[in-house]
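To: structure subgroup
Subject: Chain for Friday's discussion

All,

I'm putting the inputs and outputs inline so they're searchable in the archive.
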Amino acid sequence: MFTFVTGGLRSGKSEYAIRRASEMGPPPWLWVAAYLEGDDELKARLVGHRKDQDASWKLIGAPDTLSMVLDPETLGGSGALVIDRLTVWLSNRLAVTDRSTDKALLGEVEVLADRLYRSTTPAVVVTTEIGLGFLPANVPDRRLIDVAGMANQILSERAESVVLMVSGVALRLR
């Protein structure tokens, strides 16, 4: 069982995910987030989440093979899981590969979606909705839009519920 949360930047996705995960299962909870090296703002937010939920949240960086977070040794008895910043994880993977690997990356997303669907640990997956803007002229940006758009469709198709965040308001789509 997993919930898929999408929305624009700073729309309240992560806060919603943390709140939702804490309702879905007992502590401790696991928060997995892709991060950009040197992203001081994100590091400050992680520290803030840790202070807020110190006794209940374990925070780890997203591995290259994201489905590994569902391995028993990583979940470690967590009552629920949040996978945050899926779009950043995709962007990091795309930055070190060329277009010929995009299909394999989407295959990894399918494996993740299937494992989430079958997992007994409830999860919330957070992504950025990138399909509402214009198509940039920059080819690498188009590649991210293509891959992230397909990845979002794969995950939302298998999710039990799908939520769109707009200005801090959760709109349940399914």
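Points worth raising on Friday:
The domain at 2-172 is CATH 3.40.50.300 (Rossmann fold).
The chain has one domain: 2-172.

D.
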